[in-house]
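[worker-b] picked up task from shared queue
[worker-b] task type: protein-ligand structure
[worker-b] ligand name resolved to zinc ion; SMILES cross-checked against name lookup, match
[worker-b] sequence length check passed
[worker-b] input payload:
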Amino acid sequence: MAAPGAAEQRWLQAARDFFHRALPGPDGQEPAALEAVLRCLRSAGGGTVGRGNRAFISISDLQHQQHIPCCSHLSWSTKEFKEWSHQGQGALPMQRTLPRTYLILVGYLADGRQENKEKLVDGCLYVKDNTGIIPCELLHFELDWLESLFVFPSWSYIPQRDRSSAGYLEILVDPVPVNAPKEVLHSIPVTSPVSAEPLLTSRIPCKKRSKLTVAGELTRLGPLLCVHRKTFFFLFLKCFASAVCVPVLVQKPSQLLWHRVFQLGHSYTITGLSMSSLKKSGQTMFVTSVSSCLLPYCAEQVREQPLNSASQGESTQSSSLETPEQLSCSLQLGAEEERPRPTKESKIISYVGFVTKVLNVQAGLFLLDNQVCLCLAYQPLLNSARGLRPGACVELIDVHLLQKPLVSFPFTVLGACLNSMVVLKSFSRLSTPYQPLASSGNLCLQLLFRFNLGMPLYLWLVSLLETFEERFSCFFGRRQLLSSVHQNPGAAEKFLVPLLQAMVPDREARDIYNEILSEIHQCPLQKYLTLSPPCQAPSLSAVCRVAEQKSWEGFSPSQLLSPLEAQHMGTQELNRRLAWSYCTLSAESFQPQLILQGVLRVSSRSSSLQLQDKSSALRCVISRKDGSPFAQTALIGSLLQVENYQLVVERFLKTDFPSWEHLENPEHVREKKTSVYVQFYLEDVQVLHAAEGQIQKGLRSGNSSSLRNKKDGSTTSELETPEAKMLKLEDSKADTGRDENCQGGQSSPRTTGCVSHLFLVTQKEGLMSRNYQLPAEGDKEKNELQCSFQATVLWLGRSQLWSHPREIGNLSELEETGCDEKEGVTQQEALLLFMGKSLRWFPFLHVDGLYRFTVPCCSDLQVFYKLCSPPVPAAFLSRPSCPLCLLVQDSWHLQHETWISCLPEHQLTALSVLTGMDQRTASIPEVLSSSFTGSLVSFCGEIVERTLCASPRNEKPPGHPKQRGTLLSRDHSVKLSVSAAPGSPVVMDIYITATYLHYLWGLLPGAKILFQNLERKISRFHNVYCTYNASSCVSILSLPASHLPFSSSPAGEASPPSLVLLSSLRPQLQNLAQARILCHLSCVLTVCLQWICSICSCIFKEGRCTRHNPPCPSQTGVRQASARVLVEDGTGEAVVLCRNEHVAAVLGLSLLEWEAVQNCVQSRGSVCIQHGEAPGTGCLEKPEDLVTCYLRSLCRSPLICRPILLDFSLDRKPSKIQQPAPLPLRNFHCGEVEFVSRVGPRPTLLCLKVEEVGQDALRYLNSQRMSRTSSSC
Ligand SMILES: [Zn+2]
Ligand SMILES: [Zn+2]
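[worker-b] inference finished, payload out:
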């Protein structure tokens, strides 16, 4: 063990070394200061106690070695330290206090003048030694401390979180000068202060030379301001024996430190002042000169002169100092009577409180005492908000109190304007981090000043920006989002500026001088209106949550069904009809209006387009207004904003309602699920931030997207940033384990060049699980089906080599294609197979599109052929007939060039010769016609109705049994009724099994869809319908019109169907959706009323199901009715099938009568009668049965035979018996007159609606019909 003396020696030696390094004397001599410092330490730090574990620290070591906040108190005992830290925890008991270190800090106080010539002297203070300089904050400062050497007995070091910049020091206790203070020989002025105020008010021109001295009590100290790179501040002195205040402008760099010296209520003398006035307002004030001195006021040295000014009307608003308790009291009072006033006036108060949270330092928002928000945005914080850490105590003087400026902002706000003072009363004793305020590039503050925003708008702006940053900075980085470079505004600005422009159309510039000097206070914080945000842009997870919530709001199963229909449905049908419904929401459906933003991505797992933010992803369907498909590969990775969209919530219900009577009972809802997606037009998209790493040329080609041009002239050109980092395009959650490196580039793997090949898509098939194997896949997944799709393409021209992706040029291959037809290579069909990551191209690839594959980092022109499977022998390469099958590699990049329809004529003809393209898309009437021959059909149409039905029993749904993501039961299929044109009566039915629906989005009533490669089928009843199969594909051409009421009911209220004649039905017998006839009801052929078991459909009698083997447990019966009636309209006859409520209408029964009749049937199970049968001959009914008698007499009554208006559709399942060629003759009676007429076969109609016709209406309709008939003859 070393002797105490030795330890002491070692310590002294270390101290000496430290002084050599950090505080060398002049000319590198032994620093004379060491002895003085030791002496100083001894007096300050209690002798040599604990000297052993104390060490000097240089500024540079502090900055580079100390990474957590710490404090040092030389003279304190442990007990003292504990007490100190305990007191500091008052406001924030959960926070740790600053850890104590035993470091000795010695250095000079400086104002940074010599250190950095470039930097403005801005009133900041620094501690420096030979190794470095560090900003510091003091609570008390004397001017003569500058450039003196100090020992700092008590200080905290607060490192900055971001390692790139240094932290700062909080000087807790006045520093101890090492040497005796320099004898500052203030030449004490003998000049007396003049009566300052009259000088200022009377505009006596000042003699240039005369410098004045003014003395007074400091009543107000303005903040340090920096305007046009000039830093200055104002102070206000109250002259003695008067309440008059005079403003003094301090603007010389060497005087800026005065700002730290001034203390409110103290008296000062300032010499060397001259008078000046503001050009704009003419306000006069004193201005310091270079020779000005700041002196403490000593009454003995100054003779007071009474001011003869009588202007006593002092303007400073009286303010009271409020404690937190008082404030919360007055807040509660205020909250009650807050509502009705439109414009509120903010109250000016003073307040002392602790910072408890930094809400948003860039926006200048701090939480005080956990209850009130301090906003410093209106008062520039030139010291980067140093010292404003949680735990610090601030005094606010003359700040504006704003209650509830923004509906969504939880706190009352204290706003400091240029008239307010914010004084740091004590430093935080807690180990809370320091967040520096960025003075440059601070978007919040920039926009605040640019638009001169009031507090409500500012807080709203801040909240929008916070959310925006939170959502997207993980994609682009904070700086990319917020920064704006010259004319090129950043994403955040593109988002916010239009909103602000709309909110503040006529903004006035802020007049800071007036704000500081005006006698009547004027500032942006005085008056305010509680703002209800006009719009919002929440995270996608919040969007989905709210949309789901809205979709169930006020939802009841009964609203999906018309009660008339529902009461006749069996359990199965009833629950199936409830299983799938949807609702659509637009921006206006949300309060406030919802702006949708997200980064466009493609998921290679679901092959769907998505908008993405940090919180979630939202599937999207993008269409184009001109009906061409969306193929904008360049938009992948871009940040998009849409304000015009349809948010679709598909609702999936698992229910077990026994019958309609139970619909209001929520117990029968077993499961509720939703799936949300959004659809919009590309034309409604605003690109906030274009993706990097795109090979972007889509805009150059003829049909480029006409993205919204913005007013500032920056059009979509930003989209063209050509930087090929194609791997960046990968789905972030893409499957792992696959080779990401360049494929096929055996010749030179490190090259930056790339090979591209142009092709035309001639056929595309839908997504589904297919029995393909990925080549690199391990054995374990051997039997897994791979989700995949394939496309048939025509290679155009030859592969081309480019030195860099950005150089990929025009469609020169096309010229080649046209001329060199003999060179077979230039036109070869290939089957492209997309699996794994390349599935992401599914939404972009469309028939008739010209695309280019680019293989990055590759120089092998044969790459596309080498990868064919099976490999193509070189000898065959030149033969056009050789079919190629090519697995699209993950690293390849797809780029849409143009559409075949956009090509100039000569290129087009060349291509169509090659493809032998004829019209591949048929019309719906063509497909329906019996002369149509194809089995795979493509056509366009608008969805009229979407219904869920049971899959035909013989068709086994394909797909993997444990398919994910399907929310519909697999034995369901959806029937789409598609019409050729809006309002057209001709419809085609398309059946899609639930397993395919997993990949299909946007199939909603009102949407126009291109169906490709559907299978055309003919039913038993000779009806044509289509089914979706493995090679089918759909693309959405246009979205449902948004003005349509997106009700949950499948059919909207349409205009009445057109009036037709029975004879005219023949030519278009097939697939007529709906029509109307005016006809005469001739007779009722059959009527059948039944009660049916809701589960097994057996007869339900007296409260029980009649099925015995096996017995049926059902408790619920459902009534059903049907009738067949004969109608004629003079041109022909038809049989009309009526069901349920239509039976009542045909029989002319009121709902009450109908109800009674049906209830009578309940005890019997069923009642059937037939036309022409004799009474009592019925098989089931008993002769005495009243219901039967009643019905029979009703049917026979001549009153039944009457004119009616009948809406119908053609029965799609008529007996297909062809009528013999000569049409039979039939007799018709009309009153006494008998006609004989030749009639065709009776069509069978399905009754959709029966309307009684009054005499007047009958006459009118008949006359109409006559005129039409005669005109058509
Ligand atoms: Zn103000
Ligand atoms: Zn049953």
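[worker-b] attaching auto-annotations
[worker-b] The chain has 24 helices and 59 strands.
[worker-b] releasing lock
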